[in-house]
Amino acid sequence: MKSTIFFSVTGMLVSLAASQPHGSHHHHVKRQAQRKVVIQTTTAVATVDAAQVIVYVDTPPVNQQDGSPQGSAPPTQQNNPPAAEDSVSTGPGFKSGVSYSPYNGDNSCKSADQVAKDFTKISGYQVIRLYGTDCNQVANVLAATKGSNMKLFLGIFNIAEVQKEAEIISSAVGGDWSRVNAISVGNELVNQGTNPGTVIGAIGQARGALQGSGYSGPVVTVDTMVAMVDHPELCTASDFCAVNCHAFFDGKVTADKSGDFVKGWVEKISEATGKTVVITETGWPSQGDTNDVAVPSLENHKAAISSIEGALSTNVIYFSAYNDMWKTNRPGTFNAEQFWGIMGDAPSA
């Protein structure tokens, strides 16, 4: 079932109403043990200082996973990553990061060797964002990045299994928390309809479980810019505000203005919450269907990344390292789900 939610914002968001079905925005649909994904989709439309903003969000899969997606071959190379990474402490203050998902095009888990091969091309980023704990991804990415200065922004994806996922993370880390930048609890859950109190409770549970294993770094929840402004308590419960923000889905922003769009939301959320904001997803698709003035193309992909880099010099995690061919392109997301990779196809593909 699909629904649309409209938010009217003047400083803070204050009204809510339902409307007809539409598409989705959140790109990382978490892979589960089964082989199909059943997705519900919500859409949030926010008006901020008279500018229309549309946030499309997929709900989590229901113990299922997408079948092999079909799509045209994407470009083999997008943007060049930064030249070199410097060491960074935990939490905010890093220059840039990139997200990574350990799945093959048929939705199977990548092996440790495949993950290692992927990371031979990933350099210059200080932070790598992971979304969950399946596929032995925490241990595999830790091994693949050993010897570098990259730290991991880890994720507890399923808040119904906080203790289990915290234990997986703790086991993979093996007591060396120095390589962890932060840990998220849930991804865009409130914008998908989860009660904020439930998410806040999960943050507290995760923080307790992780501290019991020796972790003392930041614990946050990640949500969209609309959800964070509408529910500043999510930031209050988190050690910083972790926000997914994509200009492409606004439909009124061209690629070269992506930086202004994202920076504007960073400033608004910081003012509303009084906390540091980390952008945990942002980017632009290299293929897909046009969304009004937002046009997917390799040229625009590069222009958007350049614009964001020019507007924000710190605390940005780009989405994503490689094209996600395990996903399914859908009209509601402008048939662009697979094509956000900074570096095109993964070497292990």
Provide a compact summary of the structure.
The chain is of the alpha/beta class. It has eight helices and twelve strands.
SSE order and pairing:
Layout lengths: L1 E9 L1 E8 L21 E8 L2 E8 L37 E4 L12 H7 L8 E3 L7 H8 L6 E6 L5 H12 L6 E8 L8 H17 L6 E6 H6 L2 H5 L3 E4 L13 H16 L3 E5 L16 H14 L4 E3 L31
Parallel strand pairs: 1-3, 5-6, 5-12, 6-7, 7-8, 8-9, 9-10, 10-11
Antiparallel strand pairs: 1-2, 3-4
Characterise this structure.
By secondary structure, the chain is α/β, with parallel strands linked by helices. Helix content is 24%, strand content 21%. It is built from eight helices and twelve strands. The chain has helices at residues 112-118, 137-144, 162-173, 196-212, 225-230, 233-237, 258-273, 298-311; strands spanning 2-10, 12-19, 41-48, 51-58, 96-99, 127-129, 151-156, 180-187, 219-224, 241-244, 277-281, 316-318. The strands form two sheets. The protein has an eight-stranded parallel beta sheet. Strand 1 and strand 2 form a beta hairpin. Helix 3 (162-173) runs parallel beside helix 4 (196-212) and helix 7 (258-273) packs across helix 8. It starts with a strand and ends in a 31-residue tail after the last strand.
Based on the model shown, name its key terms.
8-stranded parallel β-sheet, 12 strands, 4-stranded mixed β-sheet, alpha/beta, 8 helices, 24% helix, 349 residues
Give the strand order of the largest sheet, numbering strands 1, 2, ... along the chain: 11-10-9-8-7-6-5-12
Q: Give the rounded overall mean pLDDT.
A: 82
Low-pLDDT runs of 5+ residues are: 1-27, 29-77
Main sheet attributes: strand count, strand direction, barrel closure? 8 strands, parallel
What proportion of the residues form beta strands (DSSP E)?
15-25%
Backbone shape: globular
By DSSP, the count of extended strands is 12
What's the helix-strand series? Answer: EEEEEHEHEHEHEHHEHEHE
Gyration radius, rounded: 18 Å
Q: Cα distance, first to last residue?
A: 33 Å
**Contiguous helical run count:** 8
